[in-house]
Batch of 3 targets.
Target 1
Amino acid sequence: MTDGISKLIYVGDPMCSWCWGFAPEIQSLADDNQVDVVVGGLRPGPMAQELDDRMASSLSHHWHQVAEQTGQQFDTRFLDRRDGWVYDTEPAAIAVTTMREMDETATLGYLTEIQAAFYERGEDVTRSEILVGLAVGHSIDLDVFAATIETDEARKTAWHDFSRARNWGISGFPALVGELDDGRLALLARGWTGAADIRDRMADLGRMAS
C-alpha cells in the first residue's frame, strides 16, 4: 500500500462493459492494495431497459470499443435476444453486496466472475440461479446466500451503495477512490485507466499527504 493511502475504493457495476474492461487493472492493483467494492448502479430496477434494436446497437458499439482498447473478450451473441429480456443491473449488484456482507475478501473476485459470465459466456446474470451458481467455491453458505439476495434488506444494501457513489459525485463507472490515512477521500480514476497510471497517481498523492 502506498504511504498516505490506507485503501482503495472501487466503484463499479458487474454489468458495466468498461468495468469489465477495467477488471485486469483493478485485479493488478488488488495484488498489493486493499480494495473495497461499492456497486454504483448502472441500470437498476426502475431504470432498467428492455433489450431492443436500438439498445443492442448502442451496446454493441460500446462493447467493441472496450474490446479494442482493453483486449477483454465479449460474446456479442447475447445482444441478438429479442424475447423481452430487461437489462436490469439490480440483481447482480445485490449479489455483490451480499457477498461482501458474507465474505468481504471474496467481493472483488465474485464481481469479476459475474462480469466474465455475462460478457465472455453470455450468461443471464439477472437470474438468481446464475448468481448463486457463480458463488460456488466461495467460503459462504450457499443456501443463506440464495435466500438473502431475494430479501428487501439486501436490496436496500445495494441501493445504499448507489446513493453512496452519487454522494461522492460518481455517476459513471468504473471509478477509483483512494482513502487517505486521515480518512479523506481522493478520486484516483474516473473511467477506464491503466493500473500503471493509477499507481503513479497514488504515489503523487502519497507524497502530498506525507
Note: The mean pLDDT is 96.
Target 2
Amino acid sequence: MSMLPFKPAHHLAVKPEQQRWLVSHLWSEQAVGIIGGEPKCCKSFLALDLAVSVAGGRPCLRRFPVPYVGRVLLYAAEDGQDIVRRRLEGICAAAGLILEDVDIQVIIAPIVRLDLEPDRRRLEETVAELTPRLLILDPFVRLHRVDENASGEVAPLLAFLRELQRRYETAVLVVHHSKKATGSIRAGQALRGSSEFHAWGDSNLYLQRHDNELTLTIEHRAEPCMPPLALELVQRAAAIALEVRERQPAATVPPSSLEDRISAVLSGVNRPLPFAELRARCRVRNASLYTHLAALTAAGRLIKSAEGYCLAK
C-alpha cells in the first residue's frame, strides 16, 4: 500500500494578497460557501451581483473590487429565464456594463439534483468544459430530495461540491434559506437544516431583515471579517441592484437627570442664561428648576449673576 503524498509545511504555497480573493473582502478565492437568509431578503440579488462582478470585473455592490475577471456558471432553479435576464440586466446597468459583454453562462435544465449520480456527473462535465471561476447554485432546496436536517444525507452533497471546487479550482456559492424569526441567533446558526451547512463554508454571507433594514453579515474561515453592512435595493432608471447604505450615526442620548440637562444646556452656550430661557430649554416646571439651580449653585457647580446662570469654571 502506497503512502499519501505530503510535504514540509514551509514548502506549502503562499498566495499574494490579490490572489486570496475572488471578490475582495467578500468572497475568498476558490471558496465554497453560502448566501443565507430568510425569504425576501434579496439573496438571489446578492448572488447575481457577485456573478456580474466576477464576470464583468466591476466592484460587487459598487464597493468590493474583483482582482481577476472570470466566467460564471449559474443555475437559478426557482426563477424563470426572463426574470434572471431582467435582474442581470438591471445589475449590469448599475455596474456600467452591458449583459452581452459579461461571461455568465446559465444552466437551463429544468431540474438538477445533486442526490442523483447522473445529474452530478452532468454538472461535473459542465464545470469541466466551461471552467468557471464561480459556480452559483440557487437555491439548495431545489437541488435534492434528501432530509436537510439529517447530517448523514446533507454531508455527501456538500462533499461533492467541495470536490468540484478542488478538482476544477472554482469557487462554489450556494443560496440557502434561514429559519424564520431567528431573532438574536448568530446568523450562521440560523441556517435551515443540518449544522453541516454552516461548517462547510469558507466564505459565508448572511442577509437579515429587521423592520425595513437589510443587514449583510460576512464570515470567512481564514480571513478577518468586516463589521455588518446595511444594504438597500435601489432602482435608478433601468438599473436595479443592491447598494451599501451608510449607517446614520446613533442619535445623541438625552441627559437622564435634570442636573445633567441643566449642565448640557449651559455647556452649549458661552453666556449666562436667564431663568426663563433656561426653563424653556430644559422644559421643566419652575419649582423643580428653582430647587435644582439652588442646589447646584450651593455645590459650586453653577454661578448665579444678574444676567443669569452659567457653569462654574
Note: The chain has two domains: 23-245, 258-311.
Target 3
Amino acid sequence: MTRLTFRTTAAAVTATLAVTMLAACSSGGGGGAAHLTWYINPDNGAQATLAKECSAASNGQYNISTNVLPSDASQQRQQLVTRLAAKDDSIDLMSLDPVFVAEFAEAGFLAPIPDSDAAAFTKDIVAPAVQASTWKGKLVTAPFWANTQLLWYRKSVAQQAGLDMTKPVTWAQIIGAAQTAHKTVGVQAKLYEGYTVWINALVEGAGGQIVDNPGAVAKNLKLGLDSAAGTDAAQVIRSVVHDGVGGPSLSSNDEAGSLTLFEKQDTSAFLVNWPYVWAAMGPGGDKVSFRDSDVGFTTYPQTVAGQPSKPPFGGIEIGIGRYGKNKAAAIEATKCITSAEHQKEYMVSSGNPAANDTVYTDPAVEKAFPNGLAAVILQSLRQAAPRPQSQYYGDLSTALQEKFSPPGSVGSGSPAKAQKFILEVLKGDRLL
C-alpha cells in the first residue's frame, strides 16, 4: 500500500476538491431503466460479466456499467474519496477493500442499507465478512467475496520434520522444521499493507487485538499492542529473522516475492499466502513441477500452541454511494451481484473465494479448488479475523509498519513503541 496519510477523510481531500470531476460513464440502457455505475477493482473481467448478467436479469429495472479503479488499493481509495467528497452522483456501487469500510461509513459516503434488506446480504455469509461490512452495529456494505491466507508447505519437508499437517501447527514448529532443513518460511514483511496483515494475524492469533475500541475518536482510542499478545507476535517475527528462515529478501518480500521464494524447490519449505497460489503454480501459471506431488495446504499457523489461529481476512465489500440517484435500484442490483449463484460464478471465473459458505460444496467450486482446497479455504474464512476496524485505519497501518520495520529490528519492546507512536500520530503529535 502506498504510504499516504488518512487522518480524516476531510483532511485527505481538502486539496483535491477544486479538481474538476471526471465525466461520469456514459449511460448504457434505455426504456426507463435506471443507469447504475459500479466502480470495480481490477480483475479478469468477472465483475463486468456480473454487471451484464444482473442488468439482463433485472427486466429493464436497471442497467449497470462498470468503471475500473486503479490496481493499488490506496489509489482506489483516493479516487473514490475525491469523487465522494465532491458529492459525485455517478458512484452508485463501489467495490471496497474491507479496511476502508469504516472510514467511508464514518464520512457519510455510504448510503444506509435498510434494515429490511440486511438479512438478504448476510444470509449464509461467513462471520468475518459480516463483521467487516458492519460499522457501529449497522450493516453498511454488502459482503461480496472474501479472502484468507493459508499455510502452504512442502510435504517432504513436513514429513522429514515429523509434523502431522492434518492437525494445527504452530509458527514455532514450522520455523524449527525449516531451520533444521535449511529452508525458508515465506512471509510478507515489506514496508506495505501486507506486513500489517501478518502482524495483525499474529496478534489476533495470540488472543489480542490491535484496536480495543473500534469507532472511538482519536483522543479516546485504545490499542492492544502493548500486551502479552503483542509480545507473542513480535517473538514470531524475531524468530523468522534470527533463526535464519526468512530468506535474503525478507524485508522486501510481498505476496509475489514470497511465492517466488516458495517456488524454489531446493530452498523452500513453508509459505503463508492467499489461495491464488495454487492456480499460480499450476497450468497457465508458473507451472511449478513439484506442485501436485509435494505442495500441501492447511490452515494458518497458531501464534500460541493450542490457541486457534486467526488467519488474515480480505476480499471486497459492495458499498452503495450516498449521492447516487437510484438507490432503490442499487440495492436490488447489489442483491443480484452478491447472490449465492453469482458468488459461486465469480469464485470459479476469477479465483477469488466467495463470502457465502454454501457455495463451497458446489461441484464447480470443488473442481476449481481441488483436493480439498475449497474446504480448507472455508475453514480458514470461518476462523479469520479482519484487520483493525477504525476510521483512522490508513494512518494506523502505516505507523505500525514503520515501527516494525525492518523485521530484523523487531524485539520485545516493539509493540509498546508502535502503540505509543500510533497514538501520537492519530492525535497529531507526530508525523508519519
Note: Residues 1-30 have pLDDT under 50 and may be disordered.
